Amino acid sequence: MTTTISDSHRTDPADQALKQRHRAMWALGNYPAVADEIVGPLGPVLVDALRIEPGQHVLDVATGSGSAAIPAALNGGRVTATDLTPELLEVGRRHAAQRDADLRWQVADAEALPFQNDTFDTAMSCIGVMFAPHHQAGADELVRVTRAGGRIGLVNWTPEGFIGQMFAIMKPYAPTPPPGVQPPPLWGSPDHLDALFGDRVTDVRVERRTLTVTRFSAAEDFKDFFKANYGPTIVTYRNIADDPQRVADLDRALDDLARRHLDAGDGGAMEWEYLLYTATKSPGSTN
Asked: Is residue 1 in some structural domain?
């Protein structure tokens, strides 16, 4: 059984417009296919690292279709899964029903969570909150809603890894972001996380790991799959759609990136680096 609770919105018109663009971007293509076929194994990694047990109150921020939230619920956690994009939550509800996982789903902004201070035993995000545009606001909310002594856990793509390199390649072709918006892969930098969370957390553990990706047998397969299914890539190509030369240049750059990683892999596998981060909210933290 799942329970749906109300939507939440920020009141600033410029922020609302930015968040609506983000919501629309993640509804493009078929992100659940990316989760199901490629990145889904990251969710259980995060759940295991946080040692989620029966009865714990767990918040999954920017859950997507629930790749971390559903395993947390199956472990016995009392899970609330939030995301800005309702289309992804609908897929998550179906996946949860198929696995008989009991959790509740809520449309919510990672930078303005509709929960009281110190509500959750664990707050986590698996390649999710890193895509919220204002990093400090996202980190502040994770700390605020976690009780003192509770756990915060993240999986984020690193700037140096495959997805970080992909975003660096796409940046010159993508729409110009508004002032103050920071690149998502910064969340995969330990120094950046130290700056975001500061002394509000203790017992920080950081580990670079890789996700083995066997979905693609050729570089062009990767590019075509992401052009069809991954919202940020779709938006980038739409931005240059009237310039065939730039489209061709981006095609070539993404093919080259995938080819380098395929060639470096074992038997056609690629290794995509991510950062696993866990911490405990400091007892004296003022959120």
From this structure: no
**What CATH number has the domain bearing residue 201?**
3.40.50.150
pTM recorded for the entire structure:
0.94
Quick one: tokens of 122? 């664990």
How is residue 239 written in tokens?
A: 């931005």
8 A C-beta contact, residue 205 and residue 278: yes
- Whether 78 contacts 101, CB under 8 Å: no
Q: How would you write 72-96 as a 3-class SS string?
A: HHHCCCEEEEEECCHHHHHHHHHHH
Contacts of 239 (CB under 8 A, 6+ apart): 173, 174, 175
Q: Which residues pair with 281 in a beta bridge?
A: 201
Does residue 191 lie within any of the structural domains? yes
Amino acid identity for residue 180 in this structure: G
Q: E strand or H helix at 263, and its extent?
A: helix 244-264
**pLDDT per position as a tens digit, 111-158:** 999 999 999 999 999 999 999 999 999 999 999 999 999 999 999 999
Residue 166 domain boundaries? 9-281
